[in-house]
Amino acid sequence: MEKLIVDYTAVAFNTGGRKGHVKTDDGKLDFPVSMPKEIGGDSAHTNPEQLFAAGYAACFGGALGSVAGKTSLRDSEIKAKVHLGHYGPSSFGLAVDIEVKIPHAETLAHAQELVEKAHEICPYSKATRGNIEVNVKAVE
User: Fold this and answer.
1) Cβ atoms of residues 114 and 107 within 8 Å
2) Strand pairing partners for 93?
3) CATH classification of 1-46, choosing from 2.130.10.10, 2.20.25.10, 3.40.50.2000, 2.30.29.30?
4) Strands, sheet with 133-139, edge to edge from the N-terminal-most edge strand
């Protein structure tokens, strides 16, 4: 494996796990987190899956911009759905569905080509490849 040349490092802290608090070293994020109702929480605050979905969507959008070429990404939208589940008792996992609208692509097939190219270069996609199921799809 190639050695990564680090250009930037994000630093975040957590206390209290899923029913706690997160903050970044620069103070730009600083808020409580809670568990979703679906897994026994109160859903009073954001949760790790929402944070991961937001980060993945933004990162994927950047990758899409790198591969779009002459295709306008105006009015485009990336929806990342992060699924939390389990394989059995105490065996948890994630899966991700990414749906991308590219209204100015020539065709839906062309949009799908761009989405697949973005998936190849997106750092989040690279980090999850082979570890969790990630499905990418261009939608109208």
Assistant:
1) no
2) 85
3) 2.20.25.10
4) 77-88, 91-101, 133-139
Tokens 């799908």: give the residue.
112
Can you name the residues that pair with 84 across neighbouring β-strands? 94
Digitized pLDDT (tens) for each residue of the chain, 140 residues in all: 889 999 999 999 999 999 999 999 999 999 999 999 999 999 999 999 999 999 999 999 999 999 999 999 999 999 999 999 999 998 999 999 999 999 999 999 999 999 999 999 999 999 999 999 999 999 99
Torsion on CA atoms 66, 69, 75, 77, rounded to nearest 10: -40
* Calpha distance 102→65 (Å, rounded): 11
Q: Which two tokens stand for residue 33?
A: 């987190």
